[in-house]
Fold:
Amino acid sequence: MDFYDLIRGRESIRNYDPERPVDRDTLDRILEAGRLAPSAVNFQPWRFLLISSPEMLEKVRPCYGRPWFADAPHILIVVGNRDQAWVRKTDDYNFIETDLTIALDHMILAAEFEGVATCWIGAFDPDLLREVLSLAQNEIVYSLTPLGYPKEGFTKKGNKKRKPLDEIVEYL
Ligand SMILES: Cc1cc2nc3c(=O)[nH]c(=O)nc-3n(C[C@H](O)[C@H](O)[C@H](O)COP(=O)(O)O)c2cc1C
Structure:
């Protein structure tokens, strides 16, 4: 697939077929894209938690109470360790969110390449997940996405609402 077609074609999917899990090889290729993502000083301060078992799905789903979210057969959660991320000396800026964003974006684009639907979720309950996932004190739940296939008959919207380039770009 052409890279720019992939970028144009990706959209947040809020429709999942609970009866159609993603096969293990496909999931592994998506996770590998996250593993290969760049990070500041190559510190890789992340863990990728792939939730697929009925027991864990039941515990994780209440972190985001939309009915469509409960249909997803997999939930990919990106967790990071703030103490393992690079901190810029000049202003103490910690790159944890930057690194985790890149990793998740790599995996979302890989999923798109595989024909697997995603939706970046930020509005989840972090305290619930922290508890359910037994995170260490210095770990944060950063973001998550469902992984799966839309129900039969679903079609993408295909209309990206974005600011025009001339509003956001300056050639200086
Ligand atoms: C950091 C971030 C957080 C988001 N959180 C949510 C969310 O909690 N729930 C949701 O339905 N969509 C969420 N989205 C999806 C955005 O609404 C979506 O990316 C945006 O409207 C553009 O649409 P598109 O992804 O289909 O191109 C989030 C996206 C990003 C990048």
Notes: The mean pLDDT is 97. Residues 3-151 form a domain with the NADH Oxidase fold (CATH 3.40.109.10).
